[in-house]
Amino acid sequence: MSVMDDFTAEVRAAVSTALADMGADGTEFAVEPSSMENVDLAVPCFTMSKVLRKAPQAIADDLASRIAPSGLISAVASVNGYLNFNIDQAAMVGGVVGEIVARGTGYGHHPSTGLRVNLEHTSTNPTGPIHVGRARNPVIGDTLARCLKRCGHEVTTEYYVNDVGKQVVILTWGVNNVSDEEAAAEAEEHAKSIGQNEKERDKTDHRLVANYRVANKRMEAEPEVQACISDMLRRFEDGDAEVIGTVRHTAEIMLDGLRETLSNINVTLDRYTWESDFIADGSARDVVERLKTSDYAGQTDDGAWYLDLKDFGIQGKNTKFTFTRSDGTTLYTTRDLAYHLDKFTRADRVIDVLGEDQKLGSKQLCSALEILGNEKMPEPLFYSFVSLPEGKMSTRKGVVVYLDDLIDESVSRAYEEIRSRRSDMPEERMREIAWTVGVGAVRYNIVRVQPEKQFVFKWEEALNFDGNSGPYLQYVHARACSMLRKAGEYSHDTDASKLTDEYEVRLVSALSRYSDVLDAAGNGGRIHMLPAYGHEVASAFNQFYAAVPVLDAGPRRDARLTLVECAKTVLADVLDCLGMGAPEEM
RNA sequence: GGGCUCGUGGCUUAGCCAGGAUAUAGCGCUGGCCUUCUAAGCCAGACGCCCCGGGUUCGAAUCCCGGCGGGCCCGCCA
User: What is the pTM of this model?
Assistant: First the structure.
């Protein structure tokens, strides 16, 4: 139990007792953080008004007169129908600082729950590089995973590789039948047609798009290519091990490039699950057999099977959920069903980070799982798409910004920044810090906005290193580190009577809220709270920094250094939770 | 056409789910602060019919209904 929890409990107990004195035992009330400055917790008395048949202000007055400051409660006041409470400042400061010193980086983390959480994210088709329209997925997913771990859960992250279907088959044909010269010519021509030079990259995901484009073109123009691809597709559907093997191999090569990009933004996944496995092991087929026996199942004249989901809250003409083709082969959704059943054998909670275009599909999936008798449902977390000022992103039209390009641009921008201010630093070190800062800016910029809001990608915003940005938080961390370096030897001093400045109290108060924020971000799935919190802590630190001297603070020096260390500790963990590096200088 | 979703100062954004006290923060703008711990910073200031119209309520940015505007979805694709 933290000091803040104890305080809340004391307030609750005091109000309950006071209500009992008034003969209103058991009246419901809320204890909430106040929007007023200088008030720590508030109890609104409006809801009690009806039950007690008295004006809110009168109730608050009455309650206030019955509650005397004691324990952690340092003040009680009745204002505008609210009962306002203040926490004992020394107890709060001492408690929080003491706890951070004692727990270090584990401060704010929740005790282990033993709950197994499976978090699927990214899962982009292995047919091309990741562009910023899709980049929200890995960043949201990875940040959520880090939050959930801090909430005490056992988290496994997972990428579902779509190595089945026409797209990957075409790509496979392209990789195996298009010559290097042909691919190079295509790449050049494409660059010319979209009026820009795409960066030459020795990464499989970028290199292979040319093969993919050539394959598509030739398939349209040459009947024998068309036939060959159709044949491959048919053999794939029939479970031909050789075809499935080569297609999977292509997807693997492509995935290497995607993994490199992900690793560049500090995203690594625990597990990769291949869609083709659900065909190979027969589990997709089992799903089909089980669904056929359900009361909701039906068959079209052509022989395709479907579920009628009109009783599952799905409206209009979307009620038919097809789960086999007329030739009996399975569909993406059927395999996704098998995949989800598999996930539930491995986890207690299943979370899917999905683009908003998957909303209907996800709902249908849940209905089908219900029909199959699955008790738990996957919890989808949807994000809206990122577009460009000129419109929707499209690789084909060249209206696209690749994540790799964004990272490069951000890193080189960070390099220019650091070079302009730190001429003393060796080249190698500048490069290293530029990387940390550049990548941090990219990640922060993506998680800071609520997932369900669509956003338009603008370079000047993505490369903003001021104010509400990743580098702002990193800068504070570097500042704190610099002070601690210059301080040399000091010993921990958690004496609250030496930390009484209003900026110190505000900083500690911000630090005290970390565990609540992790809960909201992780368990509540509201990860955008985390960057906002980081900004709040950083801002409180900068204000403290500007107003309060530390290194020559006389008898308060050690206490202030301890506070600086606390802020550094919390900020370092916030940065890590955001998947960002915490540079010690910049 | 139907369903889902978003709409908050010039721009971006928090608060909305669990309705309450002066609506959060950033960019940009105006002005001030580097011979003191990193100015990627700090301080001060201007800028708001919380999309519109009804309803519920003592009280609505928040809940309900109806509009308007943007996005997404409505394949025997993945």
Answer: 0.95
